[in-house]
Design a protein that fits this description.
The protein contains 1 helix and 8 strands. The chain is mainly beta. About 10% of the residues lie in helices and about 50% in strands. A hairpin with an 8-residue loop joins strand 1 and strand 2 (about 35-45). The strands form 2 sheets. Strands 1, 2, 4, 5, 6 and 7 form a 6-stranded antiparallel sheet that branches. Strands 3-8 form a two-stranded antiparallel ribbon. InterPro entries: Cupin_WbuC, RmlC-like_jellyroll, RmlC_Cupin_sf, WbuC_cupin. Pfam families: DUF6016. It comes from Candidatus Cryptobacteroides gallistercoris. This is WbuC family cupin fold metalloprotein.
């Protein structure tokens, strides 16, 4: 059984600080054949997450620690909405509809749990050009 506790989150944030991308993930699927994406993602302020979208699946995001903004965009790259996720403030997560452009801005070291349909890399995610 996998448990999600402070020691695990501390370890992931430590790994993220050492990673040149300032983030690291932990696969939470049951097996490689599991046709979903479930992962913990540790993010350090300054990490760059490209504007992207998932055409075939909504994405559920739950913030377990920290503070970050989920940012939504229109097809021209204009910001349309900003959602501040912060467990300390009582806003824990959101669901981004399929096909909506989005990114994140990290304000303090954060760990999120994210879930969507389709195998990683096979979900037809696309980056905004």
């Amino acid at each position: 059984m996998k448990t999600i506790d402070n020691a695990l989150l501390d370890g992931l944030l430590s790994e993220a600080r050492e990673n040149e991308r300032l983030r690291t993930g932990m696969d939470m699927r049951n097996s490689a054949s599991d046709n979903s994406q479930r992962m913990l993602n540790a993010l350090i302020p300054g990490t760059k997450v490209d504007i992207h979208r998932h055409m075939k699946s909504a994405e559920s995001v739950t913030c377990l620690r920290g503070r970050l903004d989920e940012i939504l965009y229109d097809d021209n790259g204009n910001e349309t909405e900003r959602i501040r996720l912060s467990p300390a403030d009582g806003l824990f997560g959101c669901q981004i509809p399929a096909g909506v452009w989005h990114s994140v801005e990290v304000h303090e070291p954060s760990v999120i749990f994210e879930a969507k349909d389709g195998k990683y890399g096979e979900d037809r995610s696309e980056k905004m050009k």
